[in-house]
Specification:
Elements: H1 3-14, E1 19-24, E2 27-33, E3 36-37, E4 48-53, E5 57-59, H2 62-72
Antiparallel strand pairs: 1-2, 2-3, 2-4, 4-5
């Protein structure tokens, strides 16, 4: 796990938001938010894409990702 991904998960956990991620290289998907399954798709064919793993981990669209996390709370 790279620093960006680990930092994302740990910082959310500090404020009480538990997320799980799934990987299908080069996509990293948001699987659950506080135990609720994310069923919407964004930026990929199989899930809600948070990061793309090309040469390094790159955010897809932070505003969209955090808007989705807020809507799942």
């Amino acid at each position: 796990m790279t620093y960006k991904v680990k930092s994302f998960v740990e910082k959310l956990a500090k404020i009480g938001i538990n997320v799980t991620l799934q990987g299908n290289i080069p996509w990293v998907y948001l699987a659950t938010v506080n135990g609720k399954v994310v069923t919407e798709r964004f930026g990929g064919n199989h899930g809600f894409t948070v990061f793309m793993w090309v040469n390094d981990v790159v955010w897809t669209d932070r505003k969209v990702v955090f808007k989705k996390i807020r809507s799942m709370l």
